[in-house]
Amino acid sequence: NKAMEKRHWTRIEDLTDYKFDIESESFQLRDIMRAPLLEYKEDIEDICVAAVKERDIEGKLKQVIAEWSTQEFSFGTFKTRGELLLKGNETAEIVSLMEDSLMILGSLLSNRYNAPFKANIQKWVANLTGTTEIIEQWLLVQNLWIYLEAVFVGGDIAKQLPQEAKRFANIDKSWAKIMAYAHENPNVSSVVSVTRC
Length: 197
Description:
single chain, 4% strand, two-stranded antiparallel sheet, mainly alpha, 197 residues
């Protein structure tokens, strides 16, 4: 069984009280046949089934991780100020892909054979959930920022409401800083670290 990993052999060794030297280049089928396998046939079958199921889980987890290592934000230009906007369609597609990945991870998390990968699955669920929430907040702030930028930059309202204009200037600087950092680090899965800048 090609899905058998060292942990599976260790379980069989513990079960049969027989040592398998699987690391040896001279390890052969006859070495396996010397062990008292028939006594533990059903348990060994369970271990082999678990090995196949775990390999499938590991493959799906690796696919999710690989997908998010290449996903990047797309930015749009705002007036003459540079690329300060997340592009709507591309960002919506990213959120949709995240939801798909979270469904896959949720099914892996509920699988009874997930034990060797559970911590990593949970880490990715937390990462993608947090990233989704952050992106949704960014889009909300972006929409408000666009509206307020038109109100407070270069208009009479800024003169009439100096306190609010000052507060908006700070928000404007923060937004530009966050987008600049996101632009420098466009990988979506690194978004959580962007919020710490």
